[in-house]
């Protein structure tokens, strides 16, 4: 149960712990909800899962830096409370933060995508004192292999050809870099929390929007992805380049020899059709 990390976190809270509960989600980490005897609520991130664990110190430091720079602004991000980036006390990279209100939801409607777009616009308006690292593409060249489950092999080949060409110019902007409905918390139909800032970067606004759109495709339907992109386009003067949509969609392919990150055949089919649409 990572007792050394829990004891470390408790030392940074206002009173002894009353409860420790696992939180669902978290592809990179073990996430624990901590509640003290006086009612203080916090979340402890422990970066326990490979391949992220080997980069855990950088991920944890980046998340803390993002929360520090966002602390006085309008984005409802958690506040950082303590950091043991190299795990010298906790045994694994650890970040303690406040618990923001709300719960994740898998329900999507017009109000959902409008709020997602508006909040992403707010995030992109943030100007940190120092820029974060340049964005990293998750569509590595090693992934440029036509997937065996596709009905549109030529579309994937076209996508790989697009990525082999030059990237469009863009205005460097503060990015969440893993923005999507799964990293938003909702209360009464309103977004009350944006979590998971370990990939915060500097890059093109449309890459953040593309990632949210691909997640909507995979989790729901392409119509919601298109509605989200339309809503976001009304909030930015940066022209949409399909290159970023392609980059994000290809990033969902697994590295050679590995299974897809999701196994639902319907979700894979939606991703397949999405790629055919954006390269067509």
TrEMBL record:
Pfam family, any one: APH
Domain of life, per lineage: Bacteria
Residue ranges of every copy of the Aminoglycoside phosphotransferase domain listed in the record: 20-236
Keyword list, A-Z: Transferase
GO MF assignments: transferase activity
InterPro entries named in the record: AGP_Transferase, Aminoglycoside_PTrfase, Kinase-like_dom_sf
Protein name, per record: Aminoglycoside phosphotransferase family protein
């Amino acid at each position: 149960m990572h007792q050394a990390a829990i004891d470390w976190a408790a030392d940074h809270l206002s009173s002894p712990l009353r409860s420790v509960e696992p939180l669902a989600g978290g592809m990179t980490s073990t996430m624990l909800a901590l509640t003290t005897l006086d009612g203080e609520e916090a979340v402890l991130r422990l970066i326990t899962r490979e391949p992220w664990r080997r980069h855990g110190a950088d991920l944890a430091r980046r998340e803390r830096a993002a929360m520090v720079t966002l602390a006085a602004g309008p984005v409802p991000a958690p506040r950082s409370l303590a950091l043991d980036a190299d795990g010298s006390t906790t045994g694994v990279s650890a970040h303690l933060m406040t618990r923001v209100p709300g719960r994740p939801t898998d329900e999507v409607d017009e109000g959902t995508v409008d709020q997602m777009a508006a909040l992403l616009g707010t995030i992109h308006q943030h100007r940190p004192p120092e820029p974060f690292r340049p964005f990293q593409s998750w569509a590595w060249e090693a992934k440029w292999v036509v997937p065996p489950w596709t009905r549109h092999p030529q579309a994937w080949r076209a996508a790989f050809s697009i990525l082999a060409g030059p990237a469009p110019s863009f205005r460097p902007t503060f990015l969440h870099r893993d923005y999507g409905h799964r990293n938003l918390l909702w209360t009464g139909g309103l977004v009350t929390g944006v979590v998971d800032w370990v990939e915060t970067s500097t890059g093109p606004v449309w890459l953040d929007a593309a990632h949210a759109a691909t997640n909507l495709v995979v989790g729901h339907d392409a119509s919601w992805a298109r509605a989200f992109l339309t809503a976001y386009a009304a909030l930015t003067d940066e022209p949409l380049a399909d290159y970023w949509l392609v980059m994000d969609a290809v990033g969902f392919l697994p590295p050679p020899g590995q299974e897809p990150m999701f196994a639902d055949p319907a979700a894979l089919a939606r991703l397949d059709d999405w790629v055919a649409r954006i390269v067509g």
